[in-house]
Amino acid sequence: MAELMTLAEAVRNLVRDGDTVALEGFTHLIPVAAGQEIIRQGRRDLTLVRMTPDIVYDQLIGAGCARKLIFSWGGNPGVGSLHRFRDAVEHAWPAPLEIEEHSHAGMANRYVAGASGLPFAVLRGYVGTDLVDQTDTIKPITCPFTGEKLTAVPAINPDVTVIHAQRADRAGNVQVWGLLGVQKEAVLAAKRSLVTVEEIVDELAPVPGAITLPTWAVTAVAEVPGGAHPSYAQDYSERDNDYYQAWDEISRDRERFTQWLEQNVLDTAGSAR
Amino acid sequence: MSDSYTSDEMMTVAAAGTLREGAVCFVGIGLPSTAANLARRLHAPNLVLIYEAGAVGAKPDRLPLSIGDGVLGETADAVVSVPEIFNYWLQPGRIDVGFLGAAQIDKFGNINTTVVGDYADPKVRLPGAGGAPEIAASAKEVLVIVRQNRRAFVEKVDFVTSVGYGDGAGFRERLGLPGKGPVKVITDLGILEPDPETRELTLTAVHPGVTLDQVKEATGWDLAVAPDLVTTEAPTDEQLRALRALKEAR
């Protein structure tokens, strides 16, 4: 059964140094407040997993929380590069960052295998690309029925997955809708999970196309209104495009970034903005 | 016909023009998305737009600012998960056209969006693969839209993120890649198409006012030129009006 906690409690209880941590969200519903709480609590040596590491991963990497990144596309969507990510890869600042690099299809299938309790997934991709030579978790496999050459990728089973959703009830059942990315798979693949929600309600009214994660499939739920900002939560908030634009400038320079981090993350007491 | 337009506008209009009415198009953000949405407003109102964040049949009334912009989900025929987009819609060959951008492209249409320089010690770390490798492998055809200069148009890409024609004729067939590969590369200077025999990208059209020397100068290899090189039609006033309205819509 999911326990209702504050964000600070949930991160303290669920996220440990050295963990493999996935904060998923595909432009929509990115758990930014939770990522910043991980920074505030000073976690180190994390293996960060995410299909589309964007601003919050730039912040985690720049703050020195990450040892390794497993990903398929790292950028500031619609704006340009992630400068803290680039600085870590190109100049090992503030620490070297090991990378394990996939395509979206590869990452999505790794989560599907993880959620399915299988050791690996199969897809028809990657052949002819240089990714195959750089990434140990991409291997050729032969179909036992047709003989076709395919690609195998191992399951991802994070120690903890964090997502943001629209709402939960007091029993800890979670409801999430809109562009859902790979969040359901990431939660079901994980050993522990934290869902931050816009609001906790007495009863979950049905929403067409919504997914419910039952309380027994989730470890902790924390109410964090605006916890996806600057990304958005459909029917609750709009994407803050100005923030994404502004991040380009803030993140270019190490000093400016460090100052930003101190003022906007480290010095702020708990929870969302 | 209008004579006051930018080379980016020329490129976007030319790219939109290559999209057929009714085609199912897997769209990347940026220039591909702009061109595809322009095509929907001009000659291809029933173009089906699929975005990797999960929108199937998106009909945005303004340009999405990111791949998961709210306007995509809200206007789509269906919203599905990311595993579904890649496994059910792209992989089995349901996509007619994959529409990609590039940081580097080489003379066999291979695309790099991963690193400039050595992988372990890169000069520039780029965003990475995203959905592109599987789009390049499995879409029936691929269109590429990219600004042409020597930094982007290199003889051989530093890293093959997405396969074009590999090292030339027969490469895709040997690997069993299901799609046909890049059929057109649309740039701000002209259009390149693979030679039917060698698969080397060959200049088949230049945009109005662009000289052959200019295109060669902007290409990092000895550029092949089609014997029947044509000049692209300049954008019409109607096309430019539609493009500018699209870019201004918020």
TrEMBL record, chain A:
Keywords: Transferase
GO molecular function, one term: transferase activity
Family of this protein: Belongs to the 3-oxoacid CoA-transferase subunit B family.
Protein name in the entry: CoA transferase subunit A
Automatic annotation (TrEMBL), chain B:
Superkingdom, natural source: Bacteria
InterPro entries hit by this protein: CoA_trans_fam_I, NagB/RpiA_transferase-like
Pfam families for the chain: CoA_trans
Gene3D superfamilies, sorted: Glutaconate Coenzyme A-transferase
Family named by the database record: Belongs to the 3-oxoacid CoA-transferase subunit B family.
Protein name per its UniProtKB record: CoA-transferase subunit beta
Organism: Cryptosporangium minutisporangium
Lineage: Bacteria, Bacillati, Actinomycetota, Actinomycetes, Cryptosporangiales
